[in-house]
Amino acid sequence: MTQPQIGATDFIADAVRADNTAGTYHGRVQTRFPPEPNGYLHIGHAKAIVTTFGIAEQFAGTYNLRLDDTNPDTEDVEYVDSIIDDIAWLGFHPGKVLYASDYFEQLYEWAEYLVGKGLAYVDDQDTETISAQRGGFGKPGIESPFRDRTPDENLDLLRRMRAGEFPDGSHVLRAKIDMQAENMQLRDPVMYRIRHTEHHHTGDAWCIYPLYDWAHGQSDAIEGVTHSICTLEFASHRPLYDWFLAQLPLPYEAPRQLEFARLELTHTVTSKRRLLQLIADGTVTGWDDPRMPTLRGLRRRGYPAKAIRDFCVSIGVNKTNSRHSIEELESHVRTELNKTALRRMAVLRPLRLVIDNWPTGEDGAPLVEWFEVGNNPENPADGTRTVPFSGELFIERDDFAEVAPPKFFRLSIGREVRLRGAYLVTATSVVKDEAGNVVEVHARFDPATRGGDAPDGRKVKSTMHWVSATHAVDAEVRLYDRLFSADVPGERTGEVMDDLNPNSVEVLTGCKLEPALADDTAPGAVVQFERLGYFAKDAAQPMLFHRTVGLRDEWANISKRKA
Ligand code: ATP
Ligand code: MG
Fold first, then answer.
1. Is residue 176 within 8 Å of 185, Cβ to Cβ?
2. Alpha carbon separation from 259 to 51, 213, 237, 347 (Å, rounded)
3. Which of 32, 183, 287, 376 is 20 to 30 A from residue 448's alpha carbon, by CA?
4. Is-catalytic flag, 165?
């Protein structure tokens, strides 16, 4: 997989370079990532973080995190804390953590300034009326009857709004721009609304709150942001962004807004509203459910931060919205884990294998042999561990068939296979329960094949993983499938929830794991269960593992088909 440099030649980098060449910001580059603290960060936000912070890094500039906390109704400190933490986990360290609400006083002063210049007015109409008067494309706007209030009258009303004299919804402050503008954003947008609500950061200091368009660009300007990078849906807001800045006595050169395409993934929804709904209706267990596209969920699932960053960089920044295959992200996860994950043996659906000719020691108990096994063939520095082998083992239930069907080369009666790193064994008989199910397989081993190879050079077609029955530790393993079965959730019926996969998790209990997975594997670590995939040990619940991804790279086939 090619790994382009962050923003090497994309249109954002080109724009920044052009500004540097022209000396627009005296060579300065400053960006910010401005989430609203009304939910946890998701994979789409990761794309925005990598893009906005990456461009600052590329040009040796600075970048900050700004909590765009202008709406007290939906925001919470829980979200603020998680955002700060998730960004650090992703591997970025913003110079400062800033809050738009810290600029409420400055924003208010500027609002009075615009009122004084006759560029803003207090409207007493309700939201519905104002929005109806906006008109639409080809439909003229209607001017508010309050549009021509004098600056003095407006100033008095604005001050009384701030002082809390009026109830919610009774007045708004609007910019006085152009009710016939072709761009709807310019048809006298609302700047302030009254909300008698406590704010998680400013407490009860305010009862008027700025709307996004009034807060955002001004916050950028206050901080000295040079390039305000956001997603495409804000392109139509740019004229308004520029208009506000053009009217104000700014401390710096006005920032410049640049838009790029949102990241969407197949089988995935990222809207916070939808994610909240999944939690509220119990479809998932919370923001950190391993099926969630949140950074918390992906992290708990075992996705390395580096894989997420690499994916975001490799798909590049685009000017048109498109949906990327989730398999492409998984491919980055696999590439990274293949390098870093220690190999372990685990049997998810155990079947007992008894080796009848296994020797007993002087005390009459079966001998235990400790094999030294490499931790990661991709990285010899990861060293080795010892794995106990004895006369009673567990193998994977579907690695055995009493009578082998065509093309089945694993263990069956009379067939010899390799137990990885240990011995060659041949199955001889089975024990069945009353219903006729095989509950135990008996086998014989060849003592001359220690380490897994026959001295006479005879070959076997299968190498299987195993766990010593007496040493195995029990675990619960959760296997995940897509949360949404459709490529594009909601495309079929218009309702994304119609595409929920009812079987997105399979819980296996009584899985048998080699002992190193209990003592020598840190909570949160990701390992490879040989032949099965990558699995993350839960950070909180002991002996719970989540399947991160399987071993097969499905992206290779998909991208070949696309080419
Ligand atoms: P959502 O629609 O998921 O609620 P949002 O856009 O409301 O997301 P914000 O907290 O306002 O979320 O977003 C912070 C920044 O992250 C914004 O600049 C936004 O453009 C960007 N962002 C959000 N979702 C994506 C995405 N899917 N791809 C790229 N950037 C995104
Ligand atoms: Mg938003």
1. no
2. 11, 15, 11, 49
3. 376
4. no
Give the contacts of 343 (CB within 8 A, at least 6 positions apart): 373, 374, 375, 376, 377, 527, 528, 530
Closest CA to 376 of 512, 474, 516, 553: 516
E strands within 57-108?
62-67, 97-99
CA of 334 to the centre of ligand 2 (A): 31
Protein residue whose Cα sits closest to atom 12 of ligand 1? 35
- Kindly list the distances between the CA atom of residue 525 and the CA atoms of 83, 329, 514, 546, in Å, as whole numbers in the listed order: 22, 19, 15, 11
Residue of the nearest CA to atom 25 in ligand 1?
A: 44
Catalytic residue, candidates 238, 272, 420, 537: 272
Instruction: For residue 88, report the distance from its CA to the centre of ligand 2, in Å.
Output: 21
At residue 149, what is the residue type?
R
Closest CA to 188 of 128, 121, 91: 121
Note whether 12 and 227 are within 8 A (CB): yes
pLDDT on residue 8: 56
Find out whether 123 and 130 touch, Cβ atoms under 8 Å. Answer: yes
Give pLDDT < 70 ranges for the chain: 1-9, 563
Give the CA dihedral 99, 104, 109, 113, nearest 10 degrees.
80
pLDDT (tens digit per residue) in 19-31: 999 999 999 999 9
Predicted local distance difference test score (pLDDT) of residue 237: 98
Answer yes or no: 134 catalytic: no
Cβ atoms of residues 500 and 283 within 8 Å: yes
Condensed to tens digits (0 to 9), the pLDDT of residues 409-443 reads 999 999 999 999 999 999 999 999 999 999 999 99
- pLDDT tens for 36-67 read 999 999 999 999 999 999 999 999 999 999 99
Q: Whose CA is nearest to atom 14 of ligand 1?
A: 35
Structure-token match 């615009």, residue found: 114
Q: Where do we find the tokens 């706007």?
A: 141
DSSP letter assigned to residue 284: S
Token pair, residue 218, equals: 């001004």
Query: Alpha carbon of 324 to those of 88, 276, 311, 413, 485: distances in Å?
Result: 25, 23, 10, 47, 15
Q: Which of 45, 238, 292, 313 to probe ligand 1 with, by most ligand atoms within 8 A of CB?
A: 45
Query: Residue 561 has what pLDDT?
Result: 77
Residue with tokens 């919370």: 286
Burial class (CB in 10 A: 0-12, 13-18, 19+), 518: middle
User: Is 272 a catalytic site residue?
Assistant: yes
Counting ligand 1 atoms within 8 A of each CB, the residue from 231, 232, 322 with the most, and so the one to mutate, is 231
Mapped onto helix, strand or coil, the DSSP state of residue 282 is: coil
Nearest ligand to the CA of 270 is: 1
Residue 227 parent element (H or E): strand 227-231
